[in-house]
UniProtKB/TrEMBL annotation:
The keyword Iron does not apply. Keywords: TPR repeat. TPR repeats lie at residues 55-88. It comes from Paramecium tetraurelia. InterPro entries: TPR-like_helical_dom_sf, TPR_rpt. This is Tetratricopeptide repeat protein.
Length: 112
């Protein structure tokens, strides 16, 4: 039986941290760690376990939100992508510009 299943969340968190160092993309570990964090009342930190930290994901989310006409939310995603990846600044700036300029070369019509 695991520490978390026994309600020993402090001890469980030690092992979730260790597991995260070995495999940072392990979704099950993130899920279990988030549950233990909730038990300590650390809800905001728990939510952070699931927030992507890759520019490409924020770019895709921004494009989807733009397609759904959620312009401010798309802008927020593009801003986050910009802060995570300085290499693709021109592309991200173009996508930001496309939010207010329908004739932008960065307007993409992909199906959802």
């Amino acid at each position: 039986m695991s520490y978390a299943a026994k309600g020993e969340h402090k001890e469980a968190l030690k092992y979730f941290e260790q597991s995260e160092r070995l495999d940072p993309m392990n979704g099950l570990n993130k899920y279990q760690k988030a549950n233990s964090l909730i038990k300590f009342g650390l809800i905001r930190i728990s939510i952070d376990q699931f927030i992507p930290k890759e520019a490409a994901i924020y770019i895709l989310m921004g494009r989807i939100l733009k397609k759904l006409n959620k312009i401010q939310e798309a802008q927020n995603c593009f801003n986050m992508a910009m802060s995570l990846d300085m290499k693709d600044q021109a592309k991200i700036k173009g996508l930001m510009e496309s939010l207010s300029n329908p004739n932008s070369e960065f307007n993409d019509d992909f199906d959802l």
